[in-house]
Amino acid sequence: MNGWACRPGRIEAGPPLEASRNRQRNRVVTALLQIVILLAAAVLVSVSLDAHEGHSHHLMGTVTALEEGTITVKATDGTIVLLSLTANTVYRQGQAARSRADLAVGDRVVIELTIDGVMQSPDGARGVAKEIRFARTGESQ
Question: What is the three-class DSSP state of 108?
């Protein structure tokens, strides 16, 4: 037949039509589950990408001050950032390894840094410089 069953006074859906409705319902439920899973994954990814302590960050700018154990940089967005320097901080000019003594006020820098457990240390630093790549003003990178 055509999927319809006739009884006195009623027309009811027969097996083929009922199976079609079940398949459609299953497709809708599956699609909704996929959307929920994708939204949950998007939330988890965005949370994991947020800045957090121990995660590497980059800072670009110009050195405005150098003190024993700290560097102050005016970032490209105009903010002033104070970072701690450690014995493990690596200095590079181009591809060549350099030392803290080679770095000077006015140098352009790209700094890889980590934010330590305290947002601001006693010396006022907001992070620790892991690697400082620098060039003199007017020098090509």
Answer: strand
